[in-house]
Amino acid sequence: MASLCNTPPPIRWISLLHDCNIDDLDTYGENLEDESQLRRPLGFMKFFMNTDECVDYIAKVEDSYVVLTISGQYARHVIPHIHDFPQIAAVYIVCKPENK
User: Fold this and answer.
1) For the segment 57-73, what is each residue's pLDDT rounded down to a tens digit?
2) Cβ neighbours for 20, distance < 8 A, ≥ 6 positions apart
3) pLDDT per position as a tens digit, 14-43
4) Interhelix angle for 72-82 vs 51-60, to 10°?
5) Given strand 11-16, what is the order of strands in its sheet?
6) Cα–Cα distance for residue pair 44/68, rounded to 1 Å
């Protein structure tokens, strides 16, 4: 008898953020600590600051689902390229409020 319990594919958490400032070493150190804390429960996390590299990477993912966190500035460029990819499980768009 075949098993009815199938294990879902793993999830790759990917971030494409415009607002990263890794030149500031203090902030970068804090981000590394935050990243380490995120990786533990998530398992896999990859960061991009280049849209083409991110889209190319996602296009090559075959063995898992992708959850993408993307800054609003990149979303208009990236979403049209990835919206039909079957490996995309979710996209979260992060926007900073505009100063009034």
Assistant:
1) 999 999 889 999 898 88
2) 31, 47, 49
3) 888 765 544 443 444 455 455 555 545 556
4) 40
5) 45-48, 11-16, 65-71, 88-94
6) 12
Judge contact between 64 and 40, C-beta under 8 A. no
| 92: nearest Cα among 74, 32, 51 | 74
* Angle, vertex CA 69, rays to CA 67 and CA 75, nearest 5: 115
pLDDT of residue 94: 85
Helix H or strand E segment including 89: strand 88-94
